[in-house]
Structure formats: C-alpha cells, structure tokens
What we know:
The complex is a heterodimer of chains A (139) and B (865). With 139 residues, chain A is of the alpha/beta class.
Amino acid sequence: MKILLLEDNEADIFVIREVLSQCGITFQLHVARDGEEALSYLADLVRSGAPLPDLFLLDLNVPKTPGLDVLTQIRYRYGCSPSRIVVVTSSDSPADRRAVSALGAQAYFRKPSNLAEYLNLSRVVIEILRGRQDRGEQD
Amino acid sequence: MAALAHTECKHETELQRLRTLYQLLESLMEASSVLDVYETALTSLLEATNADRAAILMFDDDGMMRFKAWRGLSSEYRQAVTGHTPWTRGARNVQPVLVPDALREKDLHPFHEALAREKIGAVGFIPLALADGVFGNLMLYYAEPHEYEQDEVAIAQAIAGHVAIAAERAHGERERARSEQRLQAILDNSTTVIFMKDGHGRFLLINRRFEELFHLTQAQVVGQTDYAIFPPEVADQLTRNDRKMLTSGRPLSVEERIPQADGVHTYLSVKFPMEGVDGAPAGICGIATDITDRKRLEIASRRLAAIVETSEDAIVSEDLDGNIANWNKGAERIFGYTAEEAIGKSISMLAPPGRREQTAEVLRRVEEGIRVDPCETSRMRKDGRMIDVALTISPVLDDSGRIVGASEIARDITARKRSEEERASLLLREQEARKTAELLNLMGPRLLAELNPEKLVQAVTDIATLLTGARFGAFFRAAEDATKDAGCPYALSGMSPEEFAEYRISEIPVPLDIGTIRSDDISQDGRLTQSREPPDLAPSLRSYLRVAVESRSGESLGALVFGHSSPARFTETHEAILAGIAAHAAIAMDNARLFEQAGWIQTELKRSNQELRRANQDLETFAYSASHDLLEPLRTIALSAEVLERDIGPTLRPGESAFLKRIMTAAHGMNSLLEDLLAYIRIAKSADGPPPQVSSADTLDRVLESLDRIASESGLTVTRGDLPVVLMHETQLVQILQNLITNSVKYRGKESPRVHVSAAQYDAWTVFSVSDNGIGIDPQYAEQIFGLFKRLHSRDRYPGSGIGLAICERIVEQYGGRIWLKKSAPHAGSTFCFSVPASRRRETGGSIGESKHAPASENPPPGGQ
C-alpha cells in the first residue's frame, strides 16, 4: 500500500504515521513537505512507470504550491478517484470546505488539538482502504 | 235647210251649254260645300259636253293626284289610273290635253288595258289651275274615239275655272278655320287673360282663362262691354286704359286692379291696337298677367327695405364670394362707406387687418349650412378706426332654398364694450388679488418644501418681485451692522448686480424697530430728507419697500427690499402680501437651515458609520486570521505535549510531569478560547442569505441530543412550552440554546439542573425564555455577562472561555433581536430571554401556549397560508 502524505508540520507527520500504523496494514509512506515536492514525486512515479499512491493525505496550508492546487492536479492531471483522497487540515474555513467538495475527496478531516481525536482519522483511512481492496482497485 | 238645221242645231247646243253654265253658276252659288261644287260641276260637264263619263281629280298634300268626284267609273279603273297626270303640280300656262283615241295614244300606253276594260275610247284632261298653277284636273271620258269640238272644250274649261275657284275657296276656308282653331287653343291654354274688343269696347273674343276667372262663358261675354262684367269703377278704369291706348295708337302696359272672388288682384295688362282693314285701329287686343303675388312680394320687400334702410344696425348682404350686395344707411353710418362705395366690394374690407380670412371662413360655414352663432368681434371703419360690433350672420336663400349668400347685421357695441371693459378691469383686479392670495397659499408649501437655502431665498425673491411688479427685488442677509442693508444682496431678481448697484440701496438707513418700510417716493421721504445726515440716494430710486424677515424665534434672518424708478408703485396690498411672504420665507429658511444642519450631521454620521464598518471588518479579518494562525502552533504544542506525555510520561519525575501537564492544560485552554473566538467572529460570516423558517421545537430536540452526555452526567431535565417557528438560521438557534443550557448545567446549584424553555409572541417577535434552577446571577452583573471573555467566576471553579453569552448576543443582534437577563432573586435560578423574528406561519398542529397576544395586526398573515 503506497501512501502520499502532504504535510509540513512534523508533529502531525508523527501522529499520522502512528495513525496509519494502527490501521493494521503494511504501507509505504512518502511524505512531501511542500506542494511542489508532492507534484514532482507524482511526476517521477509516472515517468518511471510506477503506480500512483493508493491513498493521498493532503494538508491544504503547505509551503510553495498550495494543497488545493495539488489536489486539483491529482484529480485532473493524474485522474485519481476522490475515493482515495483525504484532506487533513487545521482549516475550518467554509471556503476551503466548498473547494474540496467541488474538486472531490473522500473525507475532510479537521486536525484536532488532542491525540485521542486524532486517532479517529484511522477509521477514515481503514474505510477507504477496505473499500479499495473490496473493489480490487489498482492503478 | 240642212245647213240651217245644222246652224239651228248648233245654236241649240250652244244655248244648252250656256244654260248649263248658268245653272252651274247658280248651283255653285248655292253649293254649301266643295263636294256640292264637284257634283254640280260633273253634272254640268256631262250635260254640256259629249262626254259620257267625267271625274275631278286633285293633287293631295302628298303630291299624288287622286279622284275627288266621278261619274260612271269603276273602282278598278280609278285605282289603276290614280296618280297619273299630264302635269306636275303648280305647272303654269297649261292647256287641256285632248286624247281623241285613247288606245292609240302611246303616252297612255300603261293604261291601255284599264282603258279598254273600262271601254274608254277617248279621254280629255282639262286643267284646274289658278294663280298658283295646276292643282287638279277635270276628266272627260268617251266610249268611242272622239273629235273634240271647240265649244265643248271651251265650256269644259269654263266649268274647270268655276270648280277651281270653288275648290280654292273651300281650301282657304278650311285653312283659316284650322289656323283659328290653333290660335284659340293657344289662347285657351294660356294662363294669362287674353281678350279682343272692337272699337266700341265690345268683347269680340276672350280666352278660357278669362272665362274661368270671371265665371263667364265666351257667349255671355262677346258683344258686351266691361260695364256688363265688372263693377262701374273697375270698368271705368279698364275703359280709360283702352281709350288711352286707342288714342295713342301704341301698345300700353298698365297695372289694372280687378276684384275677384278671393280679393283684388293686380294684373299687368298689355293692350295693343287691332288694325282694321284700312290700317286704322279697329279694336283692342289685351293680354293681362296676374301679378298679385309678385306685387305682394314687392310690397313686402319694399317694406322690408324701408325697415332695413331706417335700421340703426348695419345690415349688409353678400354673395358667396363675399361681394357686398346690399348696404343700408346703418352700414353707412357704422362703417363709413356709402352704399355706392361698398356694393360690389369684398366684405373682408371690414375685417381688421390680419383677420381677413375669418370672413371667408364664416362665408364657407354659411355656404355649408353650418349655423353661425351671433358673436362679438371687431370691424374696421373706412377711416381705419376699430369698432366693436355684435354680429348676426344668416344665410340668404333663393326661391329654391339654395344658399346664395349671407346677410350680416352688425351693431356697434363699442360704447357698451368700453363700460364692459371697465367692469372687466375691476373684475380683473379682484381676480388678481384673489390670484395673489392663491399664489401665496400655493407658494407656502413650495417654499417649505425647498430645503436648499440659496434656491429658497432666490425663489422667494423672484416670487415677491413678480407679485409687486417691482423693478428689482433683493434679499439681504442679516448683517453685522443692522442699521443698513449690505451692498451686495444674497439674492437678486429683476436686474443684473451691476444695474442694481446704481440704486445704492445700502445708503438707506434701516431703523431697527420698524419691520416694514414703504415709501411712495424715497427721494422725497421726510423720514430721510429731514434727518441730520440726509443719505445720498440714487435719483433713479423712487418707490421703496422693505420687509424684514425674522425667524420664529425672533432672530433677524434678513430683509426683502424692492424698488422702482416710478413713484407710488407699492400699495398697502403689496405690503401685506410681502409680510405674508416674509413669514413663509422665514419658516422655510428656518427649515432649510435645520435641514442643512441635519444633512451635515447625517453625512458625518454616514461617514463615521462607514469608517466604523470598515474598521470592524478589518478587525474581524484580523481576528479571524490571527486566531486561525495562532491555533496552528498551539495545536502543535498541545499535540506534541500529549505525545510526549504518553510516550515518556511514566519515566518523568513528578515535578517534570506536572510541568508537562501544565503545558497541555494551557494549550488546551488557549485552544478552546481561540475556537470560541473564531466561532464568535464567524457569526457574521455564516448567516448569509434571508433567514429560513425553523421550528424551534425541532431545534431544541437536536440541541438536547448533542448535550446527551452532559445531560446524563449532570442529571439535567429539560421541559418546554409550545415552541413556534421562527425566522433564523438553525445552526445559530442551536448555538444560542446550547450555550444557555450548557450554562445552566455549568452554573447549577446543589440540585440536579432543571431547565424550562418556552416562547411567547410579541408582535413580529418571538421571545424565548430559558429558565433554570441554578446559582443565579447577581443583577449588578446583568449587563457585564454578555461581554466578550467576561466571567463572573474563576476558571478553576467554572471552566469556559466566557464567550458563550457574547456569541448569543451577537447572534440575536444580527436578527435585530435582543438578549437579556430577566431580573431574579439570587439563588432563585436565572432566566435568559432573547427575541428573534417570528415567522408569520404558525407552528402547525398546536397553539402557542404562552402567547400574550396574537401577532401584530400590521403583519397580517399572507393569504393562502
């Protein structure tokens, strides 16, 4: 299972990694710390003929290329289904919610300030991965 | 002896013939008709000649020779030879044609057969001729060829001569009778009276008209004189005229008056002499035409003419082209033209210059049969003077009722008009006064509505100048030096400032105690000329009027000043009017001043409002992004501390672990503070669009669901009254109820918390009440509690950011509502009330339990709901 995490906050990266490890899956996590890095990683994958990630965890408020632009490219340049995209952000702005909903994503997860709530993210991830396995989706 | 015998015989024959001729003459004398003549002639012919048959033929009018009388001829024969004649009609100097042997005569060849059958051997043609030539012939027929004797032919010719004369005479008489008949027919069918009298006045002939008129027959009249028919005085008149004509020998045309059954008739008699044989007058012919009707008309029209002629009014008639046909003395007097000058000219010469077409138009209307109403108009006299006339125009009709012209009766009303004008001018003055009053009344509201002071003052000045007829009008604002009007007026009407300066108004002193100054001639005004320092007045200024304008508070606002270069232009009325205007103007100016101030304040208010709004917006934007940006590192701190605490907590010493805990608590506290702050700021952003209808009962259900954990922990019970539908965003109603109920739980007393939610209608508002049995709030803090971050209790005892009520207040204020704490005794719980817009729709299926009264009548429920 290949996962791309777009996140610049080390604390969040730490916790998310923990969340993923709780999901009982073997995964290969690639962390991009800004939008540009995320896009070049994807471009490299395509160039090398490697499959695209099975799951995208995207923060919106990241350096360089903003998260929404990365999401746009994932959806329309790489043609990925919204069912394997989760937005993980501290933003609660209605504008961001509307934009994400319009571009398409499986879930909008607002980052909490405590660990317990953060671990709820694992439920979302497990649901997505299970659905993916059930459908036998592969890129 | 034989010779003698022959001679004797011949003699005898001759004698016989003479006798015959004589007898013929005798018979002819006795013959009563031409046919008798013919018969006699035939008898004589057969006696006096050797012919055994005879006939008389005549040319008819168609030129055909036809048998008129005959002896011993068959009809076949007559038919066969009819039309044959040796002569043409009218031929002169013709001789008898004697055919000794008819059957050998080649001229008669066409008739040989007829002659043979009739056994005629010889035939003689004797012409019947007079001055006009041949008109017939006598025929002698012999059975055998015949040698004609000279005597035989001579006597036949003699007989022919007699027959010719007799026939001619008969013909002439016939013609004469016919012509007389024709004449009589003409006479009898004539509608005029025709008669003939002899030299003694005896009637010879009258026509049928005569008979009818006087109920006499021709037989009764002929031979009688006028005296037998008419009364003596009429007969005298008629005979006198007859004699007069006979004496002069020339035709006489005379009017004769004859009494008839229906009254006296007038006849126009033409009498002329009837010539006798010698050319001397032998009688009288008369033709009399009844002209009674014409006469009557003539008299009537003469009478009319007399009336017209003596009328005071101008009576004129014109044809349809406008040419004057009649012109009476009145017209002469009124218009100055004599009849000779006027008749034949165009009627338009009477119209005032520039109104000539009007007369043509009037004529056109008359011609079309349109009634032209009497009117008053102007006319121009010959001498060019204009006069006022009352005009009556009527169509002139001919006998057949056709409109052939128009008549005009014009009465000179110049004098009357003048007095009318005087009355009118009085009336006008009165109307003007009334108009002024109306204008004043009208002006009042207009002035009051004018809120621009400059425009207002100008309008007042203009109106007042117009009303007074002043040469100029000016408004001076109250000046520092109240004893003079400033040189330059605030508003000026009637002339340019340069012109106005020449009137040197500022020279005129203004007494402080007198509101109004009116002077018929300021240059002669004793008040000025006799003062110690007579002002240097402009000579062009005579009439002067000044009215002070004072505000309601008695403050001098200025003065209206009017002037005129003629004296005595301003009357008491003007003064009164101006006083009225000044009062109106003062009020209007007060209004305008207030308005100006109010306008300034309003503008200022608007500006500061805008600034405030912008500042608020800036602040909100700042607060939003600040709290958001603060939140992110804080979250990292909190999260990191937690991870640290989990992973290495057990290895820490007690003091170290407490520090870590403090970090976490502080971070969480600040986090919730920032979250609340964000929520508070977001209120303005979230409630976009018109508020939807929301059921407050359903909303409460949802709130209680979300508070389920707290409720079960604290033992909360919530009761409710009837909850209506209100107009607001549900999330916001949720926030309010959540905050209030959470507070009730948070600030509960010793008992388990009880909350009652109810609602009541006040006009367009629904007021919710949330009461609890908690610790209550000291009334002195009733206002404070709604402040941002206001807390009445230590955080340790009652956790929370102190922002909940501020959020509630901000929400209800967004809907124009209010939130307040109901006064309550300490420890008796607290009741929060908040008002939000009521829905016009009632909650279906239930009444509003605590409703104080129905929604306001000014907001009736729309139909159909």
